[in-house]
Amino acid sequence: MTAFIIDGKAVAQRVKDEVKTAVSAMKDQFDYVPGLATVLVGDDPASATYVRSKQRTCEALGIRSIGHHLPADASQAEVEGLVRELNADPSVNGILVQLPLPKHLDEEAVLNSISLEKDVDGFHPVNIGRLAMKGREPLFIPCTPAGCMELLAEAGTTISGAEAVIVGRSNIVGLPMAMLLQKANATVTICHSRTRDLTAHLKRADIVVAAIGRARMITGEMLKPGATVIDVGINRVEDPSAKRGYRLVGDVDFDSAVAVAGAITPVPGGVGPMTIAMLMKNTLRAAEIALQKRQS
Ligand code: GUN
User: Fold this and answer.
1) Which residue of 185, 240, 243, 267 is most buried, as measured by CB atoms within 10 A?
2) Domain for residue 4, yes or no?
3) Are residues 210 and 255 in the same domain?
4) What is the pLDDT of residue 261?
């Protein structure tokens, strides 16, 4: 058996096309253009690349992009002050503070200071709390987990009643992913670095979400045949034959997993493109919320 390969690039393009059409209609009907503010603190090259990519995608979809770059030694008051300014700016619908922040900053306090209606990352404690609770709905769902849900839908995977195993418990991916799958009625297990027998858990899993940040850690022989495997990992491994001297691989060993899984996301071209697409969708939603407020 060889798995169905879930084409994240194609799904992301579909989402972006829908957003672009809706943005254009909003401009025509209401003379209103959504705006996304990005806040980058410091000079981490990976973060800078991600932010640039988010800004470029905004521009391609007709969303206004407002970039702020603070120095690595910016104070807590400066960062929170900027967020408050953006909260008050009616031309800004979404605020994205790129994580991780430099170590001297209090990330929780910064995320707490973002207005709930502009929290397009879905990391505000109230949005995360609502995601965790039964019968409550957050205004925004974190982008990477939301993208993973779209990819599960693309694969035609049944979530309700399924055994789902998430490997990794980060605030950005593992934790909100677990909450989303639970809301969709999966039976959810979160595995992490202290899990005693990862394979025993994986062997039972109809759905595997790998978000640990360790290259090719999950191999085909650890999986249940037919499982849907969503690989969130983006790891650099040395490759002298590659132009840059490295290539990107996931947390799943694709070559062995593809022979066992029912469906699998590749790296690159799986989850990666979905994160930005879902951010664009959240920004459109933030603009819709702002428009509704303006009209009422
Ligand atoms: N760093 C890694 N992923 C993300 C993300 O989805 N949003 C933000 N703000 N920072 C990140």
Assistant:
1) 267
2) no
3) yes
4) 98
Mutate to test the pocket of ligand 1, among 95, 108, 121, 128 (most ligand atoms within 8 A of CB): 121
Measured in angstroms, how far is the CA atom of residue 98 from the centroid of ligand 1?
5
128 is a domain residue: no
Q: Is the whole-model pTM more than 0.85?
A: yes
pLDDT of residue 153: 98
Structural domain contains residue 296: no
Mind listing the pLDDT tens digit for each residue in 139-157? 999 999 999 999 999 999 9
- In this predicted structure, the answer to whether residue 295 has a pLDDT above a threshold of 90 is no
Give tens-digit pLDDT for 72-129: 999 999 999 999 999 999 999 999 999 999 999 999 999 999 999 999 999 999 999 9
- Is the bond into 145 cis (omega within 30 degrees of 0)? no
CATH code of the domain containing 47:
3.40.50.10860
CATH code of the domain in which 237 resides? 3.40.50.720
Q: Same domain, yes or no, for 99 and 158? A: no
User: From the alpha carbon of 100, which atom of ligand 1 is closest?
Assistant: 1
Instruction: List residues with catalytic annotation.
Output: 54, 98, 121
Pocket of ligand 1 (CB under 6 A): 96-99, 121, 143-144, 172, 275
Strand segments, DSSP code E, in 42-195 are 64-70, 94-97, 163-167, 187-191
Question: Within this chain, do residues 248 and 183 fall inside the same structural domain, yes or no?
Answer: yes
Give the closest residue to 128 by CA, choosing from 179, 191, 189: 179
- Amino acid identity at 75: S
Q: Ligand 1 centre and the CA of 28: distance in Å?
A: 31
Residue nearest to atom 2 of ligand 1 (CA): 99
Can you give the residue range of the structural domain that contains 243?
Answer: 143-272
Number of compact structural domains in the chain: 2
One domain for residues 252 and 169: yes
The ligand 1 atom nearest the CA atom of 47: 1
Residue-level pLDDT at 158: 98
What three-state secondary structure class fits 131? helix
Which residues, listed in sequence order, are joined to residue 229 by a DSSP beta bridge? 208, 264
